[in-house]
Design brief:
Double Stranded RNA Binding Domain, elongated, 2 domains, 5 strands
Length: about 210
């Protein structure tokens, strides 16, 4: 009869001593894989160190470190200058000369997104965040790439350390229709998503009224 036992004081304490027919190669491979997996996952200490370095990079405006280590978009990812499309539809005729804020909010159909001053995310990234927001599509608003074709313009800026104020304005009259801010602690993508969420929540009451008529 073969003696049975366990590996004391290890993570394999519940595993019996290997029998003569045990495949040691497979056992060692399993141990190696588990060791590699645990080392591949950054510890809480490592994550905290990176977070502090990102905070310092924001304070020192170290753009290169922010791009390489903190997930900020690179300069080349910012939008190129918009160009007019000859076949694109013009802005809504009903809104061109309107000065009624409520009327514009209920009826605008096209929006130009300008996040060039958001610093840590660009217009393209904000448009992607709006596109991922399922409630945005319920507003029945189309994003356009030429401001001359838009009923309204969404402009986003940046204030230290992670606030992204935004304004939605009527293009022809510059009337400010909605304003608010998004937040993205140490993260441009989080800031873009929060701006999208807050914009949708602010616009909902007027768009729901329009849909209910």
């Amino acid at each position: 009869m073969v003696a049975q036992g366990h590996y004391p004081g290890s993570q394999y304490a519940g595993t019996p001593f290997a029998q003569p027919e045990t495949n040691f190669t497979a056992l060692f491979d399993q141990i190696r894989r588990e060791s590699e997996q645990s080392s591949a996952q950054p510890s809480a200490t490592d994550q905290e160190m990176v977070r502090r370095q990102c905070v310092r990079a924001v304070q020192e405006e170290d753009v290169r470190f922010l791009e390489n280590s903190c997930g900020w978009p690179r300069q080349e990812e910012q939008d190129a200058a918009p160009h007019a499309a000859p076949e694109a539809p013009d802005q809504s005729d009903l809104l061109k000369n309107s000065k009624d804020r409520d009327f514009i909010l209920r009826n605008f159909r096209t929006m130009y997104v300008d996040a060039r001053e958001a610093k840590y995310f660009g217009s393209r990234q904000l448009k992607a965040a709006l596109g991922k927001n399922k409630d945005f599509w319920k507003l029945n608003v189309r994003m356009v790439d030429d401001p001359r074709m838009a009923d309204v313009i969404l402009k986003v800026s940046y204030t230290f350390a992670w606030d992204y104020p935004f304004e939605l304005a009527h293009r022809n009259t510059t009337i400010v229709l909605l304003s608010g801010k998004g937040e993205g602690p140490f993260s441009g993508p989080l800031g873009a998503a929060d701006v999208a969420r807050n914009l949708v929540n602010l616009a909902k009451p007027w768009r729901e009224k329009a849909a209910g008529k």
